[in-house]
Structure formats: C-alpha cells, structure tokens
C-alpha cells in the first residue's frame, strides 16, 4: 500500500534536487566571494615612504639646531633677524613635506600632523618677529613641542614600513 503516487514522488525528488543545487551554488558563490575579498586588501594608511621619513628627520634636526643655537645665545642677542633665515628654511621644508603628504594616498593623519607643525611654526615665527626675542622658557618649551610632534610623525612613518611587510 502506497500513500504517495509515483508521479508525486518523482516531482518531490525533482524539487529536492533543485533545492540542493541552489544550496550548492550558494555555497560556491560564498566561497568565491570570500576568496576574492581576501585577495583584495584595503589599505587604511599610506605605504611607507623613505623620502618622507628622511625629510622629517632633516626637519627635526634643523629645528633642534635652531633652538639649541638660540638657547646658547645671550637673551639680548636673540633678535629675530639673527635667526630669520633658519626660520624660513624650516618653513620651506615643512611646506614641501606638507605637499608631499597631501599627494600620498590614504595619508590623512600624517598630513594633519604636518599641517599642525606648519601652523605652529608660522605662529612661533610671528611671535619671535613681534617680540624680537625669546625667553629660555619659551625656547625649551618650543623645542620640546616640536621634538614630540616630529617624533610622532617619524614613528608613524616607521610603523608604515613594518605594516607594509604584513600586506
């Protein structure tokens, strides 16, 4: 005694086979998508740039030298005109570094850091020009400020070198 007629059993088998084929096709699509996505990595930070790192190191050296020179100059002889060329040289290098960072893909953080350094440098230049001298306290504070800021940029660039070896 059969509860199902043979024609319904064949129809049922056909529907089950169609569902199994759809499930298998979906699995293949999922595996293919996962494979493709794993092959395409998205970069959230720019790639390491040795020239940027060298520029940052050169700028930090010039800033350090300038403030050490000021610190070792008697306060009465710390006129802006005595250091004007060094200020302008550092500003020019910061401008070039800023342009370089803007041109790099996925480099917003470093670009912001360089812009902050450039803005601070312009403010400090203007302040020295207006007062025509700097106190020992201001010299030490500015020197430490730029060392921290540029050190953060340098470490960030060095991290990109480590990070790029993983990609």
Describe the structure.
- With 167 residues, the protein is mainly α.
- The protein contains 5 helices and no strands.
- The radius of gyration is 31 Å and the shape is rod-shaped.
- The mean pLDDT is 85.
Keywords:
mainly alpha, single chain, 0% strand, 167 residues, rod-shaped
Helix content: over 70%
The main β sheet shows up as:
none
Succession of helices and strands: HHHHH
Alpha-carbon Rg, integer = 31 Å
Structural class given helices, strands, pairing? mainly alpha
**Strand residue percentage:** under 5%
The CA-CA distance between the termini, in Å, is 66 Å
Task: Give the overall pLDDT as a whole number.
Answer: 85
**Shape label:** rod-shaped
Number of strands: 0
* SS summary, helix count: 5
**Uncertain runs:** none
